[in-house]
Write a structure and sequence with these properties.
Blueprint (H helix, E strand, L loop, with lengths): L13 H10 L2 H20 E2 L4 E3 L4 E5 L1 E5 L3 E3 L4 E5 L6 E5 L4 E2 L4 E4 L2 E4 L4 E2 L4 E3 L6 E2 L5 E2 L5 E3 L4 E2 L4 E2 L4 E2 L4 E2 L4 E2 L7 E5 L2 E6 L6
Length: 207
């Protein structure tokens, strides 16, 4: 006996579904449309099965790169994310579970920016792993224009902070507002200044 397996999609009466959609009030139609659009956008931009909460006016440019998460995270209004790699060297932005990116923060990734779990990045910050151009020293030696940025778990970053390429910020650290961080810092650091330095040690805290 031949057994025919019918696709679940084929069992739907698409015409009936369309008529049901059209019979809804316009406000509900608009809600369904934008919900579907947001879902498709997230599926295209983020390689994750976890929800990513996007604020209004978030701009994401992605070429030869990917964005991954390991849990629910939030990107607030007006943020700009640029994940731009090359065919042989893709770029990668990773956002840890529970991490929040504040309003109007800019993250530029040409190689790797890894932000751990439960991080809180305030508004108007700039995190960039590239100089956007190569420097050629006397004698022809080239300085790499990208270096990964690693922000470990449970790091708080104040407003208007700049983090330069090649920086690693240890877990459970706090970066004061207005700091310019151009070198790596160990865990449990209170970081402040331009250029930033470790001003004291934080004695064990959790978010």
């Amino acid at each position: 006996m031949d057994v025919q397996i019918q696709s679940p999609i084929a069992s739907y009466n698409l015409a009936a579904l369309w008529q049901k959609f059209r019979s809804r009030p316009f406000s509900q139609q608009r809600y369904y449309f934008f919900s579907l659009t947001r879902w498709l956008l997230r599926a295209y931009l983020f390689e994750t099965h976890s929800p990513v909460l996007l604020g209004r006016g978030v701009h994401i440019e992605r070429r030869y790169g990917c964005i991954t998460t390991d849990g629910v995270c939030s990107i607030k209004t007006g943020c700009r994310l640029g994940i731009v790699g090359t065919p042989g060297k893709p770029a990668h932005l990773h956002l840890g579970e529970g991490t929040e990116i504040g309003q109007r923060t800019i993250i530029n990734v040409h190689e790797l920016v890894h932000i751990g779990k439960l991080c809180c990045i305030s508004w108007d910050c700039n995190i960039t792993d590239t100089d956007f151009h190569q420097l050629v020293m006397e004698g022809g030696r080239r300085i790499p224009n990208t270096k990964p940025i690693i922000i470990e778990d449970n790091v708080w970053i104040g407003t208007n902070v700049t983090i330069a390429k090649g920086v690693q910020i240890g877990a459970h650290s706090v970066v004061a507002a207005g700091s310019v961080v151009h070198r790596s810092m160990p865990p449990y650091s209170l970081i402040a200044g331009n250029p930033a330095r470790r001003v004291s040690t934080i004695d064990g805290w959790e978010r």
